[in-house]
Design brief:
Blueprint (H helix, E strand, L loop, with lengths): L6 E3 L5 H6 L4 E7 L4 H16 L6 E6 L4 H6 L7 E6 L2 E7 L4 H11 L1
Parallel strand pairs: 1-3, 2-3
Antiparallel strand pairs: 2-4, 4-5
């Protein structure tokens, strides 16, 4: 598990351990290399990892092309999709390129 504001690379094989069997808030960015809006949101997600590291928020990224099982399991149809998990349970989803303030509001709602 990544600590200190680092973003975890989450895969089909590690999703359960890294996200669903963990306590607290986890943010997972479902993205792909070829996705333009994902390149806009990616640095925002990286910044959230740093901004909220001291509050125990974990941030991960799932490449949907490399991890189709996890993407399918959560019904990811559009990317970027950012899923919020609280104590391993899916509690919120944001789809599309949104401003940092919108994602920060979601983080605050679930902390």
């Amino acid at each position: 598990m990544a600590e200190g504001g680092q973003v975890m690379e989450v895969t089909d094989g590690t999703f359960v351990d890294q996200i669903e069997q963990s306590d607290g808030l986890a943010i997972v960015d479902f993205w792909a290399e070829w996705c333009g809006p994902c390149r806009i949101v990616g640095p925002i997600v990286d910044q959230l990892a740093q901004d909220y590291a001291d509050q125990g928020v974990r941030v991960g990224k799932v490449d949907v092309d490399q991890n189709p099982e996890t993407a399918s399991r959560f019904g990811i149809r559009s990317i970027p999709s950012i899923l919020f998990f609280k104590d391993g349970q899916l509690v919120d989803t944001v789809v599309g390129a949104v401003p940092k303030a919108h994602l920060e509001q979601k983080v605050q709602e679930h902390l």
